[in-house]
């Protein structure tokens, strides 16, 4: 019996990451309908927009789905109120202290998962009472841990420390990666970049196409003085590197970043001045598929990889 499928009452232990400007109700409901767990990405939604997406997701699927909430969100109290009012059953929290909201959510009957980048934070999340954790290696796209611990190293280290279920994230886009994560100690996987390049993703077509064109070595973690983020190396990225040559202050970096850079790049499709967040695994993504096909392909690859590994044993 798999602890993640049991916890969420889903068919496959595949969770779609709640990515900004990508994870609206169309993607979340499609993933849930295909047997995974879809997540709405609250990080790019005003409170009432989130409410609208929750309501639309309920109409689009009868299966479980959840909401990913970065706790640095300025309207966090209003967001949490909407989560309870709309009877959301599953919440993934990130970018903050799990002690802050876990008790409140669990008192309202909500299953809580927290995203971490180290064993230290995994232990804190367990102590806070979360039901599971996402252990995310620095291969992942978007905002990331400062530790730069890879998924391959992070999962077994976290497994040594905690007893609650572990969801592996970072660098997983196919069934082979899923099997590797499970062998290392994960109970399930969270997949971001592969779903960003899906039919149902709310990202701009320009951004989806640039994912397909991104090759090995063409992303990098940067802006660690603010919030570390993995970006495709476009003009905006090169502007950051030029600024670093001048030993910038945090204020200098914040001024260059400005507002709504991720929206400009991911949602509006500005490939020059936008912030293009994607994982290292983009080099393995070569086509745009439906969420249903992505999950079906992953499970077929996973099962095939299991058999191939069995043949290696001696």
Automatic annotation (TrEMBL):
Key words of the record: Dioxygenase, Flavoprotein, FMN, Oxidoreductase
InterPro entries: Aldolase_TIM, NMO
Organism domain of life: Bacteria
Gene Ontology MF annotations: dioxygenase activity
Pfam families registered for this protein in UniProt: NMO
Keyword field contains Oxidoreductase: yes
Gene source species: Flavobacterium palustre
Alphabetized SUPFAM superfamilies for the sequence: Inosine monophosphate dehydrogenase (IMPDH)
Protein name (Swiss-Prot/TrEMBL): 2-nitropropane dioxygenase
UniProt xrefs under Gene3D superfamilies: Aldolase class I
């Amino acid at each position: 019996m798999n602890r993640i499928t049991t916890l969420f009452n889903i068919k496959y232990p595949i969770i779609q990451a709640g990515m900004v400007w990508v994870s609206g109700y169309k993607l979340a409901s499609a993933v849930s309908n295909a047997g995974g767990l879809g997540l709405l990405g609250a990080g790019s939604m005003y409170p009432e927009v989130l409410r609208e997406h929750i309501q639309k997701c309920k109409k689009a699927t009868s299966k479980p789905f959840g909401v990913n909430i970065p706790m640095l969100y300025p309207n966090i109290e209003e967001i949490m109120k909407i989560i309870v009012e709309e009877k959301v059953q599953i919440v993934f929290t990130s970018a903050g202290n799990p002690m802050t909201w876990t008790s409140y959510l669990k008192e309202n009957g909500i299953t809580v998962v927290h995203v971490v980048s180290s064993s230290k934070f995994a232990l804190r999340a367990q102590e806070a009472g979360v039901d599971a954790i996402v252990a995310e290696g620095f291969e992942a796209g978007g905002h990331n841990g400062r530790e730069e611990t890879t998924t391959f190293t992070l999962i077994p280290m976290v497994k040594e420390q905690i007893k609650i279920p572990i969801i592996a994230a970072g660098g997983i886009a196919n069934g082979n990666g899923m099997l590797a994560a499970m062998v290392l100690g994960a109970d399930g996987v969270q997949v971001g970049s592969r779903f960003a390049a899906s039919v149902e993703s709310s990202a701009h077509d320009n951004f989806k196409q640039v994912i397909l064109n991104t090759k090995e070595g063409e992303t990098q973690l940067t802006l660690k003085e603010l919030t570390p983020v993995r970006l495709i190396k476009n003009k905006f990225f090169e502007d950051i590197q030029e600024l670093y040559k001048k030993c910038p202050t945090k204020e200098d970096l914040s001024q260059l970043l400005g507002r709504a850079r991720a929206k400009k790049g991911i949602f509006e499709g500005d490939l020059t001045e936008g912030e293009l967040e994607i994982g290292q695994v983009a080099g393995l993504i070569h086509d745009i598929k439906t969420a249903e096909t992505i999950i079906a392909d992953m499970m077929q690859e996973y099962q095939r990889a299991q058999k191939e590994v069995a043949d290696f044993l001696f």
